[in-house]
Predict the 3D structure of the following.
Amino acid sequence: MALQKADKTDRHLDIDLHTRGNDLKGFLPAKPPLKEYSISSSPSLSRLQEIESNLPKLLLTSRVQLTVESLNKDDLSIQELLESKSERELRLAMVHLSFLAHAYVLEGTKPNS
């Protein structure tokens, strides 16, 4: 099976991946990462922001899994960000979702699958 060569652009977001180096100061981004979403009216993004700001407390009290399992299907939707194509906000959402996923899997004495 032959490996396919990576495309120069991500077709879904239309981001040129080969010019990313121009956005860096050394190894740091030229602009600091976002801390909050600009779309404040979105209930799902507000919920994601709230969970992430409470993640250390949820980890200390072993309530990450309980919190995630109490959510409805679309409670953490990032559909609005995908439609807006805001790269910086998408990066923030990916950081939030990946931290939450890691916390969910690794919570407790025995990791969940």
